[in-house]
């Protein structure tokens, strides 16, 4: 009798013999941390607005509408129009696409280069000396001064913004990766692995890189928010995206110039910038809090 019951239970897929059922799948840990879900939601909203901009925008980003000079917000123009009769809401949606492209290309590229340089500098003394001196030179220039120099050499544009962000992030991730790797390498379990004959490749794959990722992941989120500010500052000063192509920085500049005639002009880009920056910061803080638990 008992054997039949056990067999039927096993056939039905229910745990028997004291074995626990598989735990249910859950959301990533950082989404359960305070602020993590809110930050991810903010980023997702902005990303969806940018991805579906061609479907959501009622007008083209450079389309000039007859008799629509600096109109206030209405059902036809949610954020009004600018001084050359373009729909601000449509330009905002397409401006989000530009910023997302800049952020999601420049920051990973800068993080990858900086991390590789930091890794190499921990393995070879001469490479460490050269890398640290190059980092010193880059960090000696404030980001806006660096942006002016790069723009003077290459001219304004999206490529220039990406280059500036990459240059700004390389020393940040390079020194962070170097510090993290050296800290982990001094741990007793790494020394024990070296004593029993573990090679550098095995140590990197099993110990050094996995245990050095936490500060790099947190810094990645912070750098994403900083990249939004860099694009905004460069385009605001005329060093970034060329007109008539919109971006959050150029829209903010135009909105401030016309704030008395159309106060709603500047509201849209400022809200999007706030959502992006706050979202990236909340996600990075949630990841950091999750790692500490």
Structure, described:
There is one protein chain. By secondary structure, the chain is mainly α. The protein has a single domain (29-58, 80-279), classed as MetI-like fold, CATH 1.10.3720.10. The protein contains 13 helices and no strands. It has helices at residues 2-11, 29-32, 36-51, 53-56, 88-123, 125-139, 143-154, 158-185, 188-195, 200-208, 213-236, 248-257, 267-292. The chain starts with a helix and ends with a helix.
Q: How are the elements arranged and paired?
A:
Blueprint: H1 2-11, H2 29-32, H3 36-51, H4 53-56, H5 88-123, H6 125-139, H7 143-154, H8 158-185, H9 188-195, H10 200-208, H11 213-236, H12 248-257, H13 267-292
Question: Gist?
Answer:
This protein is mostly helical and 293 residues long. Helix content is 69%, strand content 0%.
Major beta-sheet overview = none
Number of strands: 0
Order of helices and strands: HHHHHHHHHHHHH
Q: State the CATH architecture.
A: Orthogonal Bundle
Key phrases:
MetI-like fold, 0% strand, 293 residues, elongated
């Amino acid at each position: 009798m008992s054997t039949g019951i056990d067999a039927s239970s096993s056939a039905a897929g229910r745990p028997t013999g004291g074995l626990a059922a598989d735990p249910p799948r859950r959301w990533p840990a950082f989404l359960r941390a305070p602020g993590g879900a809110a930050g991810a939601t903010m980023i997702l909203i902005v990303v969806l607005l940018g991805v579906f901009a061609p479907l959501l925008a009622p007008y083209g980003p450079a389309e000039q509408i007859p008799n629509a000079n600096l109109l206030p917000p209405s059902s036809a123009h949610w954020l009004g129009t600018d001084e050359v009769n373009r729909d601000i809401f449509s330009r905002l949606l397409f401006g989000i696409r530009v910023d997302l492209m800049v952020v999601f290309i420049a920051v990973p590229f800068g993080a990858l280069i900086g991390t590789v340089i930091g890794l190499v500098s921990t393995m070879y003394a001469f490479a460490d000396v050269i890398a640290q001196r190059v980092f010193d030179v880059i960090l000696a220039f404030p980001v806006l001064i660096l942006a002016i120099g790069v723009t003077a050499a290459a001219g304004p544009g999206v490529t220039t913004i990406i280059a500036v962000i990459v240059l700004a992030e390389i020393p940040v991730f390079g020194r962070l990766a170097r510090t993290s790797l050296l800290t982990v390498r001094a741990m007793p379990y790494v020394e024990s692995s070296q004593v029993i004959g573990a090679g550098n490749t095995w140590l990197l794959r099993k110990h050094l890189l996995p245990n050095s990722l936490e500060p790099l992941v947190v810094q990645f989120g912070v750098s994403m928010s900083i990249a939004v500010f860099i694009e905004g500052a460069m385009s605001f000063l005329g060093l970034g995206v060329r007109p008539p192509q919109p971006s959050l920085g150029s829209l903010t500049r135009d909105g401030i110039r016309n704030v008395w005639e159309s106060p709603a002009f500047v509201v849209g880009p400022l809200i999007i910038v706030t959502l992006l920056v706050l979202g990236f910061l909340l996600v990075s803080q949630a990841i950091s809090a999750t790692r500490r638990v």
